[in-house]
Design a protein that fits this description.
The complex is a heterodimer of chains A (about 750) and B (about 230). With about 750 residues, chain A is of the alpha+beta class. Chain A is about 35% helix and about 25% strand. Chain B has about 230 residues and is α/β, with parallel strands linked by helices. Chain B is built from 5 helices and 11 strands. Chain B is globular. Classes of the chains: A alpha+beta (about 750), B alpha/beta (about 230).
Chain lengths: ~750, ~230
Amino acid sequence: MTGVDDQPFAELGLRADEYARIREILGRRPTDTELAMYAVMWSEHCSYKSSKVHLRRLRDTGASDALLAGIGAQAGVVDVGDGRAVTFKVESHNHPSFVEPYQGAATGVGGIVRDILAMGARPVAVMDSLRFGPADAPDTRRVLPGVVAGIGGYGNCLGLPNIGGELVFDATYAGNPLVNALCVGVLPHTRLQTNAAVGVGANVVLFGALTGRDGIGGVSVLASAGFDTASDSGGGSKRPSVQVGDPFTEKTLVECCLELYDRGLVVAVQDLGGAGLTCATSESAAAGGSGMRVWLERVPLREPSMVPLEILTSESQERMLAVVAPERTDEFLAVCTKWGVLATVIGAVTDTGRLVATWHGEVVCDVPPASLADEGPVYDRPTRRPADLAALRADDPGSLPCPASAAELRDTLLRLVAAPNLCSRAWVTEQYDRYVRGNTVLAMPEDAGVVRLDEVTGAGVALALDGNGRFCRLDPYAGAQLALAEAYRNVAVTGARPVAVTNCLNFGSPEDPQVMWQFAEAVRGLADGCRALAIPVTGGNVSFYNSTRDAAIHPTPVVGVLGVFDDVARRTSMAFATEGELLYLLGETRAEFGGSEWAHAVHGHLGGTPPRVDLARERLLAAVLVAGSRDGMVSTAHDLSDGGLAQSLVESCLRGGRGARIVPPPRLDPFVFLFAESAGRAVVALRRSEELRFTEMCDARGLPCTRIGVVDGDSLDVQGQFAVPLTELRAAYEATLPALFG
Amino acid sequence: MAARVGVVTFPGSLDDGDAARAVRLAGAEAVPLWHADPDLRGVDAVVLPGGFSYGDYLRCGAIARFASVMGALVTAVRDGHGLPVLGICNGFQVLCEAHLLPGALVRNAGLHFVCRDQRLRIESAATAWTGDYEPGAEIVVPVKNGEGRYVADARVLDELEATGRVVARYVGGNPNGSMHDIAGIASADRAVVGLMPHPEHAVETLTGPSADGLGFFTSVVKQLVNA
């Protein structure tokens, strides 16, 4: 055969028009190696071809004087004062975690840590946002323990405290769990790194682990069939497309990189993640506006039978690519030797504007690097409002039977406290080291993780990660804003000032116009929300094709918010710590149950509209919480979200080992008071001596605050309704996950 | 002059920074010791910190015991001058692998890594590292390990118990199934202590569950100053 039919572009995941464009760019038929490289770089995962037109909205999301590097960099970098900057990012590893839970989740942590490392930062903490099918589903029992063990196994061995995250169960994620990993790092401004390969004659050094056949075509599962044929290797055909992680190698790589940076030995650096060496060489050459010459036979291999396209597309973990000046190369290699890190000069920077790779003298790739890295296809895909949305929104939970008597309210409370989405996460979080590095000030189950950055000044950061697929299913625009608002609020309740946003957008297939509508709406909501809150988006990640048998998952944008502290000693915990302190509910409670945990857990119902979003109110609430914490007015603060006030009170009581006496406001239905999920609310505990100062501040700023009770005794006592001893609450709260997962 | 306490860094050590911080907070100078360097730099005591030395491949601590610095350490411990050594978590595993302490640490009974705030009872204040505690004192420090279950044969256990070499015991729940609820043990001369929980993570109330762990470090500093 001749013409286009003799190249397996479709098997590699490329469309006919995309293949034609590759021929047009090159002015000839691509080599098999080049075709494989375009296939991975133009995959949805690497090129953002379906999301790009929408993500532009996020670039313009508010004041960015503090932004040292933003969207487009490997991770956004935010100035936090004193010459110090913080970088953070969240990324998905959903599909690998379903195929091979332990390694999929482990390498998700490893990948995001290298993104942070590549910016010049020392990674200082991780978090993870996890979503699975129903808690009692057999497949959840297969996937969840492996995912948790993988996150712990990698993160613990890497020496990064895990400071928080999410765990959600919903049938929508059965067969398509979401595993989103976040890492935060810190760097002096002067250590900020670039990936721009510049300086003709500079050496290109590959360092870290050996390159093997793991993860080939990982970014583009379709591609693996083609590779197996091409590799002509019987053993290769059975390799999984999931990478295998080695946290010890990553730990030495982290320390090695930081020493290389501190000694000024690096011109440019990029991590190897999706699309491996192809991505790292093409992106760094494109960023530098240069060319690059690579001798592939110099790449140290785990398996000597590997062929060029396998070497170029392998996603073997724990590897970095650096550009090093020739006269500093010996010193660079000596540092690598000190840390036991394998380092090899595999290429050189050129001024040809071409990425040229040879294999024992034969040219296997000669392409413009930007055509791989930046000039992939961009699709403005059709969007259509989901056909079932009107009916779904009309199905208001107001018609559901709700508890009325005191006994029914008490039963509902105990049932929700034990529900898989609200119960204690200790079975999971006890498998993660939260203490390593000795700077963890708050960690789960607190609303946000807080890490000290400076032992002298006490400067630090807070991080929260939140999403709500049910709210987004009902209204992706509002749902994305509610996720943003919750993460923002979770940072503010600790006393930190929110300053920046990252996101991981988990959606179904972009080829489904209804999914694309959800995506466009969610991005628009997030962009508008960030502008309203005046905090910029610094970066993010998109994960499409999350669906099982044609059924897309609920649209699930997961939003991370970074906050800063001048002094972490001012942090506020969620624990009720002192008898006699007064409890105030901040914000307004309405009968909002659309997408609520009550409707989900008690009735298996999803319908109606999500809670009203008021971002001006969120800003006001955050300002009050931050001021209350800074000025020592607030002893305890806890966000209200899933499960409403009742859940929040239970968590604060159990965290502090102290009860509360609650007096429901006379004109509010006790059920609404306890379980509604209205946004923009928090509970605070105050010393009596601070009551006047605090309530006057709320009044002056126009934030509704209602005295609802007092920290007291050893039960949660809702006066006129019911009381539950803490021992009974604790038993219900803590039993669920151990009973399910052992 | 301040006491000088060495903190060893193996590839894969993770809590070396925390151990050094604890040493400083106890009023001593923390001296970094590098695994490949057979030189203890004249330190007065040594901490082997937690982590996953050499990835803990093969068996926890099994590779680290062959590190150059361990050769120097074993020689110093055996020369009879009673160099105080504290092995925490992975460091405890290394001390057992190096046969400076008896017994072994194996996979937790529950098979999971466990990180929690743990209550301990100090059983012996007669070691280089526990002199600042009252015997029987209860403290809260983090425990975090996947392979922290202390095991030894009956003869060793009997000897440890009979000679007062059990330094600390888990109370209020045994997190890993250790025999006799053992959290830490000492050498016959009480200079070398292995401890599975992490006192270096409980030296400030801001970041730890308590500051109860600081006593391990102040104990050795006091002993060194008085020596």
